[in-house]
Specification:
The protein is α+β, with helices and mostly antiparallel strands. About 45% of the residues lie in helices and about 20% in strands. The strands form 3 sheets. Strands 1-2-3-5-4 form a 5-stranded antiparallel β-sheet, covered by helices on one side. It has a 3-stranded antiparallel β-sheet with strand order 6-8-9. The longest helix has 16 residues, at about 90-105.
Length: about 250
């Protein structure tokens, strides 16, 4: 494997391309369990038949763990939106259609979203009363078993050069659970990126296409914001705490 062409740098990991492969190299000290779980997640999602880059190898390169997957040819929806702002609404609609397609699948061996959320809430450092309210709200939400990507945003959706096919990247956070929780996370990701107008358009589109009450997705926002705050980005935490502290939405 040649680690020459860097295609992305993320917190604690660097992503390279070598021909038809992508090599995600994790920093030393990165949790081995999390790396192996990510590879297992990809392998499990492969079995749903969704168009995703398949995992080819888990290895070590210069003492660092790495996951090797197929390379998805094309541009991300984020790139296409930036290059063709006049088509942004069209791309956003396709983005939502792809998310709904992902959520139409089931994958019984994946971790459960509600269990992961409960664990994250316990790690937030919030006061006991707030954690209790979040846990109670989480427990009251319906149990579903849909594939939930967990980080579904336009940088993780690749459209082929001919525009006909697509592929979804980055399955590190995938779980099985409630599609509206996944939509709430996508909504917050648009907010965190500073694109509030697109966040609102996205939520309207998702709710219309899935015949879901907007209030139902909004009920997930404090839970999802609390979970997201554990990721350790200080600049995001204050913003996310605002969502956690708003108990009800109009």
């Amino acid at each position: 494997m040649k680690l020459e062409k860097v295609i992305a740098v993320r917190t604690s990991k660097t992503i390279y391309r070598d021909g038809q492969y992508v090599i995600k190299v994790f920093d030393e000290g990165y949790s081995k369990a999390d790396i192996l779980n990510e590879a297992l997640n990809i392998a499990r999602v492969e079995e749903t038949g969704l168009p995703i880059p398949h995992v080819e190898e888990v290895t070590k390169i210069d003492g660092k763990w790495a996951i090797v997957t197929d390379y998805a040819e094309g541009k991300t929806l984020a790139q296409l939106m930036a290059e063709n702002p006049d088509k942004k609404d069209e791309y956003l609609e396709r983005f939502v259609d792809i998310q709904i397609e992902v959520q139409s699948k089931t994958c019984p061996m994946l971790n459960r979203l509600k269990e992961k959320m409960k664990r994250k809430i316990s790690q937030t450092g919030l006061d006991a009363t707030t954690r209790y309210e979040l846990d109670a709200r989480l427990a009251s939400m319906p149990n579903h078993n849909k594939v939930c990507h967990g980080d579904f945003n336009p940088t993780n959706v690749v459209i082929s050069p001919d525009g006909e096919s697509w592929s979804v990247l980055d399955w590190a956070h995938v779980t099985q659970g409630n599609a509206s929780a996944d939509a709430a996370r996508t909504y917050l990701l648009f907010w965190l990126a500073g694109d509030i107008e697109t966040a609102e358009k996205y939520l309207d589109l998702f709710c219309k296409k899935t015949d879901t009450a907007k209030q139902y997705v909004q009920k997930w926002l404090p839970i999802v914001a609390a979970s997201q705050s554990v990721k350790g980005k200080p600049e995001e935490r204050e913003f996310l705490m605002h969502w956690v502290n708003v108990v009800e939405y109009e």
